[in-house]
Amino acid sequence: MTNDFATNLSLLCSYHRSIAEVCRKLDFNRQQFNKYLAGQSRPSRRNMRRICDFFGVTEAELLMEAAPFEDMISLRRKPAQETELSKPLQHLEKLYHSSQSLEKYVGFYFRYFFSFGNPGLIIRSLASVYPEEGKYYWRNIEILRKPGERVASGLNKYDGALFYLADRIYVMEYETLERNSITSVTLYPSHRHRLDRLVGIQTGGPTRRGRKPGASRVVLEFLGKDIDVKAALRKCGLFRPEDGAIRKETVNLIRNEIGPGAFVLDVEEP
């Protein structure tokens, strides 16, 4: 393999905060990854696929000569002009125009679901719904802290938009650091006087799973409109379903089981 591969890989890594972060997200050994960067070793076929999926390039592109590869990446990362954004924004405006008010749902939530990348563990993250100029937006923060550990191994942030259409709440979120994954969440609205939780289905999956998509049940537990955010974040992390940190009722609501006679993963209306 020529040094172009190492040069191109280094360029892609330069768009991230550190090599250590890239290795963590790819779940690669740092010493082995350094050999790739130095041109001393070639990734296996499987690892090459994982690298390409993570950075959003093909293997053929990653093996291009360094100069044209840099030009290609530069063009891909160039911000789109307003004229280029007009058509997709028109679609969003149509949805916003049809959307009902989400004022009732403004506030903070604990979000629960079985982790896509950590089998058998439940993620508790902190999500919020907030208004801005007549529209409603979404933010979610995941603290990757394994059970029994005090120090987190990572942090994921997501931003997105919400729509209230046909008696369902839709959330479209994207990962803000890499900007290479989208999750879609569909929730039942609450018709109770007091908002306590929302249940639904989400689809997507982190890039560490490769290209394999997934779906899971999800619960949003309403915390209030004004909370101690730092204290709430300290309660976020990864949990075993049996350790008692998460209420049994919540665990049962997010179990991804398909019952007899059913052919798709769905969730009953609360």
Automatic annotation (TrEMBL):
It comes from the Bacteria. GO terms for molecular function: DNA binding. PROSITE patterns: HTH_CROC1 (PS50943). CDD domains: HTH_XRE. It holds the Pfam family HTH_31. SUPFAM superfamilies: lambda repressor-like DNA-binding domains (SSF47413). InterPro entries: Cro/C1-type_HTH (IPR001387), Lambda_DNA-bd_dom_sf (IPR010982). Residues 18-62 form the HTH cro/C1-type domain. This is Helix-turn-helix domain-containing protein. The lineage of its organism: Bacteria, Pseudomonadati, Pseudomonadota, Alphaproteobacteria, Rhodobacterales.
